[in-house]
Design brief:
The protein is α+β, with helices and mostly antiparallel strands. It has helices at 12-22, 54-64, 84-96, 103-118, 125-136, 145-148, and strands at 23-31, 39-50, 68-73, 76-81. It has a single domain, classed as Endonuclease I-creI, CATH 3.10.28.10. It is built from 6 helices and 4 strands, in the order H-E-E-H-E-E-H-H-H-H.
């Protein structure tokens, strides 16, 4: 199929609606000793589909012009975007093609985190804590291990 064929192209608003139902904005904070503060902030966007619908992931990847398609689990595959530059482009896409469900709340928190990371704020103690708090408000509102870890940087009295 040729991307030049108008009928084979995805509509941006359709993609936003599809992401509203199937996409995920996520920010993990992982313990990594060789990182500046001992923690790695790992933002990512994921779009998961059963293998029989992998063609949709490929079309979305083609529309965006970035992202990697990998096996998610079992017979499910995902389009994943992790590079900060690509995540910034993704943010621009969803600012121009707004999400309609409560997923827009996750997107807005995600956007704040990417903005902080782009300014290297995640390399500072207080800002890393702020990012962890923002990420804890996303999706299922799970508190990051960073906020509960005994190894988390604690303010000194």
């Amino acid at each position: 199929m040729s991307a030049d064929n108008q009928q084979e192209r995805l509509d941006n608003k359709w993609v936003s609606g599809f992401v509203d139902g199937e996409g995920c904005f996520y920010v993990g904070i992982n313990k990594i000793q060789n990182m500046t503060l001992g923690w790695q902030v790992l933002p990512e966007f994921r779009l998961v589909q059963h293998k029989k619908n992998i063609f949709v992931l490929k079309k979305v990847q083609e529309l965006f012009g970035y992202g990697v398609i990998t096996r998610n689990h079992g017979d499910r595959f995902e389009l994943r975007v992790r590079k900060i530059g690509d995540l910034k482009k993704l943010i621009e896409f969803f600012q121009q093609n707004p999400l309609m469900t409560t997923k827009k709340d996750d997107f807005n928190l995600f956007k704040k985190i990417i903005y902080l990371m782009d300014k290297k704020e995640h390399l500072k103690e207080e800002e890393l804590k702020a990012i962890a708090k923002l990420s804890s408000e996303m999706n299922r509102k799970i508190k990051p291990k960073f906020l509960e870890s005994s190894e988390t940087i604690r303010p000194t009295s």
